[in-house]
Amino acid sequence: MKKILIIFSVICMMAVFTTKVMAQVTLTGNTAGATLVTALTITNTTPMNFGVIAIPTTAGSVTMSTAGLRTPTGCTIVASGTPKTVAKFDLTGTAGATYSFTLPSSITVTKVSSTETMTIDNFVVNVDAAGEVAYSSIGTCTLTSGASSVLVGGKLNIGAAQALGVYAGTYTVIVDYL
Questions:
Q1: For residue 145, what are the domain limits?
Q2: In a domain, 4, yes or no
Q3: Contact criterion met (CB below 8 Å) for 52 and 82
Q4: Looking at the domain assignment, is residue 21 inside a domain?
Q5: CB–CB of 140/98 below 8 Å?
Q6: For residue range 122-150, what is the model confidence (pLDDT) as tens digits?
Q7: What pLDDT, in 10s, does the model give residues 77-112?
Q8: How many domains does the structure of the chain reveal?
Q9: In sequence order, what are the residues at sequence separation of 6 or more whose Cβ sits closer than 8 angstroms to the Cβ of residue 59?
Q10: Residue 70 lies inside a defined structural domain of this protein
């Protein structure tokens, strides 16, 4: 009998220690949501082209403003030939929304069918005809009435005795809602 009592006591103790304690907490009134916006679109309506430039004997450059004015340093601009154009990007999206506009730090253009290169840097921008600013100062932009226009100029760096020819390259522009 003593053995039965001990076994029964052990079984009861095990039952006490293995019983799960259940507690339930309910939190109501949690929120969820979403904001729907018109998808951003960007179109490069005008490519950047510095026009025709005479090869300098020493390193030089051509700086182009967002108004299309070219300023040569150490080289000569040729009036005829391929017209110069500033890059123009047209954006559409949700009216009144803010966005960021991101350019690379520089663009490399390569001589067609060759390996010689030049770089374009020191970008300037003009957002919605608000006036030209250095790209580093662009800040936050707004899609007034759901559209925006960004003009981009910069500085073409030409090496001493740069190889004669046509130079071209591509680059990536990123726009994103803020």
A1: 41-177
A2: no
A3: yes
A4: no
A5: yes
A6: 999 999 999 999 998 888 999 999 999 99
A7: 887 777 899 999 999 999 999 999 999 999 999 999
A8: 1
A9: 74, 157, 158, 159, 160
A10: yes
